[in-house]
Amino acid sequence: MRIPLTWLNELLSAPLAPEVVRDTLLRVGLEVDSLAHQAPGLETVVVGQIVAIDRHPNADKLRVCQTDVGEGTPLQIVTGAPNVQLHDKVPVARVGSNLPGNKRIEAAKLRGVESFGMYCSLVELGLPPGEDGVHVLPADTPIGLPIAAAMELGEPVLELAITANRPDLLAVEGVARELAVGTPGLALRRAAPALPPAQAGAGITLGAVDLARCPAYMGLTLRGVKVGPSPEWLVQRLVACGLRSINNVVDATNYVMLLTGQPTHAFDASRIAGGAITVRAAAEGETLETLDGVTRRLLPEDLVIADAERALVVAGVMGGQQAEVSEHTTDLFLECACFAPAGVRRTARRLGLSTDSSYRFERGVDPAGTARALALLVELIKQLAGGAPAGGVVAAQAPGFPAPRTFAFHLDAIERLLGLTVPNPEVERILTGLGFQLNRHTDGVFELNAYDVVAPGWRWHDTTREVDLVEEIARHWGYDRIPSVLPEATPRPVQPASLGLERRARAIATALGLTEVMTRSLTTAEAEALAGVQGGDHVRLSNPLKEMSAMRTSLLPSLLEVLRYNRYQGCTQLGVFELGRTYHLQPDGTHRERRWLGAALMGSLWSGLWLPEHVPATLAADFSYAKGLLEAVVQRLELGEALTLAPAGDLPGLHPGRAARVLVGGREVGVVGEVHPRVAQDYDLPGGQAVAAFALDLEALADQPAPARRFKAFSRQPAMLRDLAVLVPATLPAGEALAAIREVGGDLLERVSMFDRYAGPGIPEGQVSLGFSLVYRAAGRTLSTAEVDPVHQAIVDHMHARFGAVLRA
Predict the structure, then answer these.
(1) Cis peptide before 389 (omega within 30 of 0)
(2) How is residue 270 annotated by DSSP?
(3) Phi, psi of 603, deg, nearest 5
(4) What digits encode the pLDDT tens for the residues 702-759?
(5) Phi, psi (rounded to 5 degrees) for 451
(6) How many other C-beta atoms are found inside a 10 Å radius of the C-beta of residue 72?
(7) CB-based contact 309:273 (threshold 8 Å)
């Protein structure tokens, strides 16, 4: 927001210097982007340096100069000024400049040589005459600097960056209030005009008002006004604030908006059909030609100000041309209202309109400020355009609106939160200066160190609690007065075991070649049903988005959506993982969250490699590949227990015959398998190719008693390798066979892994051949065959006794 300093000083009991204003606002926590001088007509005049001077080929009194204005390529300017010299710094009016006295600068040819600007004298800058010829600036003046800033022409203008929680600072009065409180001894001058009493004559009446979306609406008719140009002081003030002048009536509405932060609007009363105004929802398909000349289609969710025939204004956003004030207007209807911020925000976004009015209504205006703003507008228009009220003020207000916002404030909260003591008189000066009403608590005899505080309307949007008042006191008492104290050492909070497990799981999954994704926790029952996830334990949102009404119970739907999106972009092979939460409704109405490592794979994940003939050229995203990744994750997590798989049964979204439940230490911790072909088809994933997924419950894994991690040196002794091929029932899970081998192998068996599973010619019906590789090693010595043979035979005997396994010939 841009504010001329003269306007601020008009609202203060004593003027402040520009630097004092800037430093005070910075000290109380406002962001000052700039403090610069601005002069109308000199916006495109900058400091330039003459870098080359040549004689004009066709005129003895003209010279051709090259001038650096900070834009890279020098400007060529033809001048007849006799006093300019090489390396002089001078004011340069670029092409398009409109200098004081309505002198416009255009590109021109002077005696056959092109010129792209003009050097300026003091008179051409609108200043009293001084030296003859072009004004020469000091040698240390920065090149490219606007001349208004270089010569401090015009008035100083502040530019502030206002955060969304401080709509009160979108008003000159709001900034002046901060200055007054931030400068002890200074007071704010705040006009308090009264609305005129009812007058003779018929005015515009007020019909039905949608009080849910417009809780306060006021209007007044003025007759006999004369619309015309605004006085120079008003034009210059609006220009300094970044607005252009329209006419005296429209300029008055903008002036009041800038002063108070309350937008207002003026209608041509003669163009209000039926002589009455209503505030209603737009009709379906209703159109309105706004002031920017665009015809806009409205929806019932849009609020409009209308007459008996049509909509006239998109409420809080922009007026329409049907009742626009023009030079032919003689009667006005002046409006001031308070609109619900959310409705204005939705309409402005949908229409693609962001106006000074909508910007303020979206953040919230003073709910109690409509009457004062209307009174200021009436008074200003009567001064600028004349006119007299007809009838009285018409108004509508929702019951109980505005309801004062009151809360308790205890003085000991200052020391508790800031670590310092602020004198009570200073506390009262700061808070009352900012507009808060303080009522001291008493016990009937003595005053207590607490207040009942009533927040002013312009601070309802960001002061709702005691801590907010402490922040106000800290800002104006001075952040620099808060002592720097090292905090006391406190024990480091114990992090949940699942957090460390999650970090390790992320690193492992990334190292295995998977790409991490982050998806929404919100879902719909339909999306989960599409992925084959069934369940009625959804946690429902009390204030849902249009399509997302529940929290997810599985990571599978969102991971499949990622695969589908990437496939649409031309990616046919992909492996992704997510560390996310699922949410489950409990029988007692509470909900439980669980953390998961989920992964989804599609396509040929390993292709184009040079491999021996007996090794497949690709590794498809099938059950075996997903199981291998899962085993690698569990192994590297070092949980102290081996992973085993159990028959799956019917797992949501997975292929019944190609899925399994994951067990660690005999406890179920997840699932792995291929996605059901029907689900893959529903997600438009590659036909004829497997899509696999797995999920690990990190909460369950964190509950596993993790072994202490100890350093184990590499053995320098040679290992003895043995292979074991046995025939076992085809229904035997390989994990059970591996566990049986480890159980008997004892300390000599260092490692066992399965390298082959074969069923086909040469293998009896109902059986399968499993091939295992066993590594035997002893610490400190070389093993002998006599030591290994008994252990190896014990493994064979145990396999036979337990599973009926026989050695394969």
Answers:
(1) no
(2) G
(3) 80, -170
(4) 776 655 666 677 778 899 999 999 999 998 888 789 889 999 998 899 989 888 888 8
(5) -135, 150
(6) 6
(7) yes
- Strand bridging mode 98-99 / 103-104: antiparallel
**Rg of the chain, C-alpha, whole Å:** 40
The secondary structure element, H or E, covering residue 632 is: helix 623-637
Rounded Cα gap, residues 369 and 192, in angstroms: 11
Residue 48 has pLDDT above 90, yes or no: yes
Contacting residues for 316 by C-beta, under 8 A, at least 6 apart: 263, 303, 337, 339, 343, 344, 347, 348, 357, 358, 361
Residues 717/778, Cβ–Cβ less than 8 Å: yes
How far is the C-alpha of 763 from the C-alpha of 802, rounded, in Å? 20
Q: Which residues contact 701 (CB under 8 A, 6 or more apart)?
A: 498, 501, 637, 639, 664, 669
Q: Which two tokens stand for residue 236?
A: 């210059």
CA 696 to chain centre: 32
- 277: β partners: 206
Helices of type H across 437-573:
466-477, 497-511, 525-530, 556-568
Query: End-to-end alpha-carbon separation of the chain, Å?
Result: 89
Task: Read off the pLDDT of residues 449-459 as tens digits, 9 standing for 90 and up.
Answer: 889 999 999 99
Strands, E assignment, 341-442 = 388-397, 405-410, 437-442
Q: Are 161 and 33 in contact (CB under 8 A)?
A: yes
Contact predicate 700/498, CB 8 Å? no
* Token pair for 477: 């008492």
> What's the token pair of residue 103?
């002198």
Q: Using DSSP, state whether 303 is helix, strand or coil.
A: strand
Which residue type does 222 have? L
- Which range, 153-162, 585-594, 699-708, 782-791, has the best average confidence (pLDDT)? 782-791
Q: Which of 389, 425, 360, 67 is nearest to 203 (CA)?
A: 389
Secondary element (H or E) of residue 424: helix 424-433
| Helices first, then strands: H and E counts in the chain | 20, 41
C-alpha torsion 673→677→680→684, nearest 10: 160
How far, in Å, are 55, 86, 91, 93, 139 from residue 78 at the CA level? Answer: 10, 14, 14, 12, 22
Single-letter code of the amino acid located at 45: V
Burial 90-126 (b: 16+ CB within 10 A, else e): bbbbbeebebeeeeebeeeebeebebbbbbbbbebbb
